[in-house]
Amino acid sequence: MENRIHHFTMEQGHHSLADQINATESHILLEAAAKYYFQISQKHGHTREYFSSPEGEVIKVDETSVRYIPLYRDDSGKMLVLVDSKTGESVVAVYLNGTWRSVDDILRSSDPSKEGLIQVQTFGERIALFVLNCLVCGFSEANGSGHEAYFLPHASRELAKIFWCHGEAVGFYTYKNKGNLCNPGTGQCYQLPVLDTVFVRKNWRRQGVGAKMLQDYSQAFPEESVLGISSPISPAMYTVCHKFLTCNPKDQDRFWEVEAPGYWSQRVNIWLKIQLGEAPAVTRPNLELQDLPALLLFFL
């Protein structure tokens, strides 16, 4: 039997992989992945299919090197991904349109209008969000925590924006609108907009991408006097908040760390927490009365 090798190929011209995905019915892609996964599982290692990665690594496609993981948190659709069978810690490809596609290929777009933060709307953009969240953030950049360490997928209608830089998806943030349900089981709704998750790929960190996301989030709700960031906030995110709020004093009163649904008793002002030295991994500045948010001075 002849070996079948799926070679990595870079999409050329205007029709990128994202364009192809958007032109295909989502259920067709998901059904094809399910069928292929079933075929692989039935062969019990007796396969002659291989994937040649962009780095030149040849990976055998069998049940030890594939993972069948949820695309959405609230839907039955799943994606078939190929991992390094030796370590299981790095996703190298995703099965789309009848072939294996490298992660980097999926995160590229030839659409010149995709620059900066773009709202996730199309199925192709949902796939890019899934790859960033579950595969890059959860697998490839998860500090070697094992092949089960992917992040939980987002909901199928998650509000999200992807940051595109020169045709490449380099990060994303997700958020909740004021009035969105926190949990269908409780009936509680968010009392304010809440920035939920933020991720920037390693090669683009310390280049101001996180601050641009906060700026975009702030500008998206000009009528809101209070904006939330979901608790707990990581030390790295506190550092980004510190830099952003230092450069944007008008937002110091607006940004609050919140627990859902965000009642006043569930909020802590981020700038005040930084000033008091209570924020992790942020150097405590000299605390002066005039540095405190005006809203909080009212309570002192």
From TrEMBL:
<dbReference type="InterPro" id="IPR016181">
    <property type="entry name" value="Acyl_CoA_acyltransferase"/>
</dbReference>
<dbReference type="InterPro" id="IPR029625">
    <property type="entry name" value="FAM169"/>
</dbReference>
<protein>
    <submittedName>
        <fullName>Family with sequence similarity 169 member B</fullName>
    </submittedName>
</protein>
